[in-house]
TrEMBL record:
GO molecular function, one term: aldehyde dehydrogenase (NAD+) activity
Residues of the active site: 266
Lineage: Bacteria, Pseudomonadati, Pseudomonadota, Alphaproteobacteria, Rhodospirillales
This protein's record includes keyword Secreted: no
Occurrences of domain Aldehyde dehydrogenase (ranges): 29-491
Broadest EC class assigned to this enzyme: oxidoreductase
Family according to the record: Belongs to the aldehyde dehydrogenase family.
Entries under InterPro entries matching the protein: Ald_DH/histidinol_DH, Ald_DH_C, Ald_DH_CS_GLU, Ald_DH_N, Aldehyde_DH_dom, ALDH7A1-like
Protein name stated in the entry: aldehyde dehydrogenase (NAD(+))
Subunit and interaction comment: Homotetramer.
Keyword NAD in record: yes
Gene source species: Elstera cyanobacteriorum
Keywords, alphabetical: NAD, Oxidoreductase
PROSITE patterns in the record: ALDEHYDE_DEHYDR_GLU (PS00687)
Length: 513
């Protein structure tokens, strides 16, 4: 375990300024920011008033009216320039992600790479916003569907992927002809300020090279819950993409529904993996370790439930326990560290409550204790916890945003499929097997009920090319790749009569003199 000391507070101001963030935006404000690495106070960000936020939304609405008229490939050029800025500043922004969230270096850089990847995707998408030509029963008619920009896209992001989630939404929204208003997590405003500064650089280049873009195309509003509620309730925001807890989704969803706005909700995940008798145990060990312990268990796709077949349980679980005992926990900026800190004390307390409940339910707990306390009183490092449970009960049924893996035995494949699906959440899932029938059954209609289902790879670590999201209490929304762009546009079905008669559909007759 690394105890390397570091003054995060001394590094952050210069890093922010190198990314184009003005010093007065992160000093002297009321929103205090602490780095989970040391617990140090690293910034005091200025919060926006309700009046400022409303004005930003109104301005974004006016910007949308102009941006929707810019040809989609031209809009794609802005995303190409944003991708260039992100490539140029990948090291600095990735470092800032690590400092503000506590991710290990490769994960901080990997998050920025996701942003670059989605910009590349959006550039191509800008020439592929396809509609359909539809067969019509009427002669000398043509029927088709067209897709049009929707309006202001509201984005509410969580702390654990503070910049990637914005890019998944914003890159698609911009090429679809929308403007964006972003409300980041109160825990991670610095990475949002830096990202928005890079967007402003890309926008300035876009205009300098002859592009046309309105003022207010992208807005950042900093604040607490009340600012988020303002965005959700605003009548000029037809789509809100919100990432967070299921409780947050229960509050946001009905408000959007009440005004007939669209929702993309990315909520809780209680993800499971099944280890079948034919699994490659070396591959499985690596897959499980990353999925369960990566990002200190603070991914919505983190592996939280593990079902191991009776025939291999005694061979596999001791190996997994050894990995848990030896995984390097400590300063995420130090080479070799694999598990950094929890985001804050609230996350630590929630983890301890879950472990206490697991013990009360008969579970055997390994790990879970606080470590590396020399890093600072307000820095919360924990040894990842492996909990052997006799059944799926108590805290196993709930998502705890921390590195806790509940391990259970199974003997019957059909029964374990039922257990796998018997939780309220439905985000991500996986099976480790070399049995073709088991793999295909897991991916079939009777298999995993999650939005993401994998074979011989863990549930964590999605790529931007596939639509990201889940079912049930996970919210049902989709972000990023595939045809997710359709959520950011409105569809129109068009029929064109190029003849001289007026035949009606379904053989209806309506002749007037």
């Amino acid at each position: 375990m690394s105890n390397t000391s570091v003054s995060v507070a001394a590094e952050v101001p210069a890093l922010l300024e190198s990314l184009g963030v003005a010093r007065d935006s992160f000093t002297g404000g009321t929103l205090t920011v602490r780095s989970p690495i040391t617990g140090e106070l690293i910034a005091a960000v200025k919060e926006d008033t309700a009046a400022v936020a409303k004005a930003a939304i109104d301005k974004a609405h006016e910007a949308f009216k102009a941006w929707r008229l810019v040809p989609a490939p031209k809009r794609g050029e802005l995303m190409r320039l944003l991708g260039e800025e992100l490539r140029t500043h990948k090291q600095a922004l990735g470092r800032l992600v690590s400092l503000e969230v506590g991710k290990i270096t490769s994960e901080g850089l990997g998050e920025v790479q996701e942003m670059i990847d989605i910009c590349d995707f959006a550039v191509g998408l800008s020439r592929q916003l396809y509609g359909l030509t539809i067969a019509t029963e009427r002669s000398e008619h043509r029927m088709m569907e067209t897709w049009h920009p929707l309006g202001v896209t509201g984005i509410i992001s969580a702390f654990n992927f503070p910049v990637a989630v914005w890019s998944w939404n914003a890159a698609l929204a911009f090429v679809c002809g929308n403007s964006c208003v972003w409300k980041p997590s109160e825990k991670t405003p610095l990475t949002a300020l830096a990202t928005h500064a890079l967007f402003d650089k890309a926008l300035a280049r876009f205009k300098a090279e002859g592009g046309t873009a309105p003022e207010g195309l992208s807005a950042l509003i900093i604040g607490g819950r009340e600012i988020g509620e303002l965005l959700v309730d605003h009548p000029k925001v037809p789509l809100v993409s919100a990432t967070g807890s299921t409780a947050m989704g229960r509050a946001v969803g009905p408000k959007l529904a009440a005004r007939f706005a669209r929702a993309i909700l990315e909520l809780g995940g209680n993800n499971a993996a099944i280890i079948a008798p034919t699994a490659d145990l070396d591959l499985t060990l690596r897959g499980v370790a990353f999925a369960a312990m990566g990002t200190a268990g603070q991914r919505c796709t983190t592996l939280r439930r593990l079902f191991v077949h009776d025939s291999i349980y005694d061979a596999f679980v001791p190996r997994l326990k050894k990995a848990y005992e030896s995984v390097p926990v400590g300063n995420p900026l130090t080479q070799g560290t694999l598990v950094g800190p929890l985001i804050d004390k609230g996350a630590f307390d929630a983890m301890q409550r879950a472990l206490t409940e697991a013990k009360a339910a008969g579970g055997t707990v390994q790990g879970g204790e606080r470590v590396n306390e020399a890093a600072g009183a307000d820095a919360y490092y924990v040894r990842p916890a492996l909990v052997e449970m006799g059944s799926q009960t108590g805290p196993v049924l709930h998502e705890t945003f921390a590195p806790i893996l509940y391990v259970m035995r199974y003997s019957d494949f059909d029964a374990v499929l039922d257990l796998h699906n018997d939780v309220p959440q439905g985000l991500s899932s996986s099976i480790f097997t070399n049995d073709l029938r088991e793999a295909e059954a897991f991916l079939s209609a009777r298999g995993s009920d999650c939005g993401i289902a994998n074979v011989n790879i863990g549930p964590s670590g999605a790529e931007i090319g596939g639509a990201f999201g889940g079912e049930k209490e996970t919210g049902g929304g989709r972000e990023s790749g595939s045809d997710s762009w359709k959520a950011y546009m409105r569809r129109a079905t068009n029929t064109v009569n190029y003849g001289r008669t007026l035949p009606l559909a379904q053989g209806v007759k309506f002749d007037v003199a």
